[in-house]
Amino acid sequence: MVKDTRQKILNATSHLFERQGYHATGLNEIVKESGTPRGSLYYYFPEGKEEIASESVKQRMAYISSHADEVMQQFAEPAEAVYALILGIMNNMGESCGTGAPIAAVALEASNTSERIRTACAKGYQDYQDVVAKKLIDGGFSEEKAQSLALTIHAAIEGVMILSRTSKNVTLIENVANDMKFLIEFSSKN
Amino acid sequence: MVKDTRQKILNATSHLFERQGYHATGLNEIVKESGTPRGSLYYYFPEGKEEIASESVKQRMAYISSHADEVMQQFAEPAEAVYALILGIMNNMGESCGTGAPIAAVALEASNTSERIRTACAKGYQDYQDVVAKKLIDGGFSEEKAQSLALTIHAAIEGVMILSRTSKNVTLIENVANDMKFLIEFSSKN
DNA sequence: AAAATTATACTAACTGGTCTATATAGGTAT
DNA sequence: ATACCTATATAGACCAGTTAGTATAATTTT
């Protein structure tokens, strides 16, 4: 595998970023966690940490969005699909609450500092939101209403992950799942 | 003013944490931004950065919660109050989108690292949520339903601030304000 | 042999934190 | 009032460790 080392670096970076954010994650830590050679860092990412971060964010969000899309396809009704999506997040989180909100910390830290990272986050978020919006449109919502609801759903998801991690209580997520289901079911379709 | 220096340190810290988070904010930067003497840092906060952070988070969230409480009191209906609260956040954010989510970055960064900071964030968040819950109870919601709605509202607020900052677009917040108003108005009261 | 990849040593800047010396108060005894 | 004393507060040099990043040599792989 030619790109194996490169991929290991990105995986380790995504993992560390999710747990502790951008600035707390050092290059040495990435090297150690990935088990890749130190010298390869700047070989594969000559532009340094910013490039690693931006690439890691892109890749992570692409994976998450495609996973969300799979969930969406498993349900006929958008309300059910979104409910399942959010519950799935809860189950993935585990009791320790060490993860969840894979790029939120990076997005906040970089929003005023690195335009490159910020835009990578913005695009990743938008793609994720579009997955939900698409499902809502398929379910009969107008394009505008779907985008509007998808935004609120996404915000609620992002927020509740922060609250879950901070309070070390995953059950909060179920609460939000119920409210989002309700919101979709009772909202007008245009 | 005897406690002037100490307060300046906390103010600067809160300000910097909101914009760039915990790890990106160095002690030197706090000293510089606050205009206080370097030697005073460890005089007022002998336990170091963690103590400064925990104190800063507490104070900041106390202020935000009391402000939210004031807004709640200006409206008879909880749906209207929450709507006004969220719109107020939008107006405070300003076009640059450099602020908003005052402790979210710190909460995410510290949730796996510093128990002291994590609990300070958790308590701050809970108090904020209680302000909203109280208003819902006053508006006729059951205690349980009020807590549940307050959580979702809080999550949506926290999340949309991240999304606004990342996309540099404050208008998203209005969208969430509308949906939260709707959610309150159409939810059953028990 | 040539190209791709990795190893190692290094830099300059910065980190959080400690240290001692010094100033500046406010109160007290003379 | 004045001299003295002590607690509070400030100044800033200093520490060891770490950071991101660079340069170049050695090693694989093709």
Could you describe the 3D structure shown?
With 190 residues, chain A is an all-alpha fold. In chain A, 76% of the residues lie in helices and 0% in strands. Chain A contains nine helices and no strands. The first copy, chain A, has helices at residues 4-20, 27-34, 38-44, 49-73, 78-93, 104-110, 115-138, 143-167, 172-186. In chain A, helix 4 packs across helix 5 (78-93) and helix 4 packs parallel to helix 7 (115-138). Chain A is elongated and about 55 Å long. The termini of chain A are far apart. The interface between A and B is large, with 49 and 49 residues. Chain A binds a DNA duplex (30 and 30 nucleotides) through helix 3.
Short description:
Chain A is mainly α and 190 residues long. Chain A has helices at 4-20, 27-34, 38-44, 49-73, 78-93, 104-110, 115-138, 143-167, 172-186.
Chart the SSEs and their pairings:
The structure is a homodimer of 190-residue chains.
Chain A: H1 4-20, H2 27-34, H3 38-44, H4 49-73, H5 78-93, H6 104-110, H7 115-138, H8 143-167, H9 172-186
The structure holds a DNA duplex (30 and 30 nucleotides).
| Mean pLDDT level of chain A | 95
Give the ordered list of helices and strands of chain A: HHHHHHHHH
- Terminus-to-terminus distance of chain A: 50 Å
Tally of DSSP β-strands of chain A = 0
Find the structural class of chain A using helix and strand composition: mainly alpha
**Biggest interface found:** A-B, 49 and 49 residues
Regarding quaternary structure, how should these chains be classified?
Answer: homodimer
Radius of gyration of chain A: 18 Å
* Percent of sequence in beta strands of chain A: under 5%
Q: Please count the helical segments of chain A.
A: 9
The biggest sheet of chain A amounts to: none
Task: Please estimate the helix content of chain A.
Answer: over 70%
Pick out the low-confidence regions of chain A.
none
Shape of chain A: elongated
